[in-house]
TrEMBL record:
GO terms for biological process: carbohydrate catabolic process. Residues 180-276 form the Mandelate racemase/muconate lactonizing enzyme C-terminal domain. Residues 403-432 are annotated as: Disordered. Signal peptide: none annotated. Keywords: Magnesium, Metal-binding. This is Mandelate racemase/muconate lactonizing enzyme C-terminal domain-containing protein. The keyword Ribosomal protein does not apply. InterPro entries: Enolase-like_C_sf, Enolase-like_N, Enolase_C-like, Mandelate_racemase_C, Mandelate_racemase_N_dom, RHMD-like. It comes from Magallana gigas (Pacific oyster).
Length: 432
């Protein structure tokens, strides 16, 4: 009888949502991996990186020249009534802060933090008129990650345990880098280099792309996996030509070769490379399960690469992982550090992590999120191990954070009480 009358643990409600930009030094990218110094390798210095703007001479030299880092870091904190805080990050900067504070906070403040599905659905539906992809979904992502972090802290468990526990003892990791030789020395299980030239550089550029890859193949030897990231820069015929030229040099996969909306183009490349051993990958700039469904339906890629801090957070990512598993497709997320690692430990079809080397010359391991989380776990000898800590297991450093659209405590309290005291008046009926 006792069994506490079946009573379960009482959870605090969410008291407040806060959104911050980061005003850190230029050498600290925070959550925007492109917000780096001008002479950083990931900006295309000194070797260029082909991108969707490469066809415009004025913007061809570096990626920051067209504002790849225009938005910058967005940090979201959700605080529960008991003072426990969860943290999520994404790209979004000041415009992202506006959306979180002035629109999305109403769906979160006052809610039970366990109701992640309800909050996600309300945020998604309420932004359909201006959202669906890009910034609004990135804002939803940061809130969702903060909710999972909060839930983990309230339950005193790591997020991977909340998702169903570990499916693997250790998670192997490859490095995205300008220096595959150093990646190999550091113990990574493979390396991915950026594609330097695109169609606007003509046949000469294509030749140089093959030479660069060949040089790295000779440097790292025949057995070290090498991949190529094309950052939405190519066309269907160019991709096919390049993949065929690199196949004999042991190209493991070719990534994001077309703009994300070229669903037909991805299918055409799949058809043309049907007999190739080169794997096709994409989707770091895809959003929500609706976008991923298009890619899965057309069976155009072998590996999906969602960014967990962009596509809709953990709540949406676990749906995509399930969809991918039913299609025999692997999920190897883009960057996103701890947010990826926890997801990947929890699901069988997420076999490998990406670590983007964000040191300016790609010669040492530095935290993916810069100074945001001083205790961010780092890869070592080819694996990423997670410490036994609740939530995503990291501590936010707030030194460089600013809250541009600060709302008063009264405003949050009023918003929270609307949700906390809401009672449904529904009469029983078939609700469809
Ligand atoms: Mg990529």
């Amino acid at each position: 009888m006792a069994a506490a009358e079946g009573k379960t643990k009482i959870f605090p409600r969410i008291k407040c949502v806060r959104a911050y930009v980061s005003e850190s030094k230029p050498e600290d990218q925070g959550a925007d991996c492109h917000d780096v110094e001008d002479t950083h390798w990931i900006n295309g210095y000194p070797t260029p990186i082909a991108n969707p703007m490469s066809g415009y001479e004025q913007y061809a030299s570096t990626r920051k020249s067209w504002g790849i880092n225009a938005l910058g870091t967005l940090v979201v904190e959700v605080e529960a009534d008991d003072g426990t805080c969860g943290v999520g990050v994404t790209i979004g900067g000041v415009p992202g802060c506006y959306i979180v504070e002035n629109h999305l906070s109403r769906f979160v403040e006052g809610q039970d933090p366990r109701d992640v599905e309800l909050m996600w659905d309300q945020m998604f539906r309420a932004t359909l008129n201006y959202g669906r992809k890009g910034l609004p979904i990135q804002c939803i992502s940061a809130i969702d990650l903060a909710l999972w972090d909060l839930l983990g802290k309230l339950r005193n468990e790591p997020v991977y345990a909340l998702l169903g526990g570990k499916t693997k003892q250790r998670l192997p990791v490859y490095s995205t880098t300008a220096r595959p030789d150093i990646a190999k020395q550091l113990g990574f299980v493979g390396a991915k280099i950026p594609c330097a030239y695109g169609p606007s550089d003509g046949d000469e550029g294509l030749k140089k792309n093959v030479e660069i890859f060949k040089r790295w193949r000779e440097t790292v030897g025949p057995d070290f996996p090498l991949m190529l990231d094309c950052y939405m820069a190519l066309t269907v015929p160019y991709t096919v030509k390049l993949a065929r030229a690199l196949e004999p040099l042991g190209l493991k996969w070719i990534e994001e070769f077309l703009p994300p909306d070229s669903y037909d183009g991805y299918r055409e490349v799949r058809e043309a490379l049907r007999s190739s051993t080169v794997l096709l990958t994409t989707a770091e700039h895809e959003y929500s399960r609706y976008g991923y469904q298009l890619l899965l339906n057309s069976k155009c890629v072998d590996i999906l690469q969602p960014d967990i801090s962009w596509l809709g957070g953990i709540t949406e990512a676990r749906r995509i992982v399930a969809m991918a598993s039913a299609n025999d497709v692997l999920v190897i997320p883009h960057g996103s550090s701890i947010y990826s690692y926890h997801l990947q430990y929890a699901f069988r079809n997420c076999p490998l992590a990406e670590f983007i080397n964000l040191s300016p010359k790609a010669d040492k391991i530095v935290p993916y999120f810069g100074g945001l989380f001083p205790d961010e776990p780092l890869p070592s000898n080819g694996f990423i191990d997670l410490p036994d800590r609740p939530g995503f297991g990291v501590t936010l450093c707030k030194d460089s954070l600013r809250r541009p659209f600060q709302r008063s405590d009264e405003e949050s309290r009023a918003q929270a009480s609307k949700n906390a005291t809401y009672k449904s008046q529904e009469k029983p009926h078939m609700p469809f």
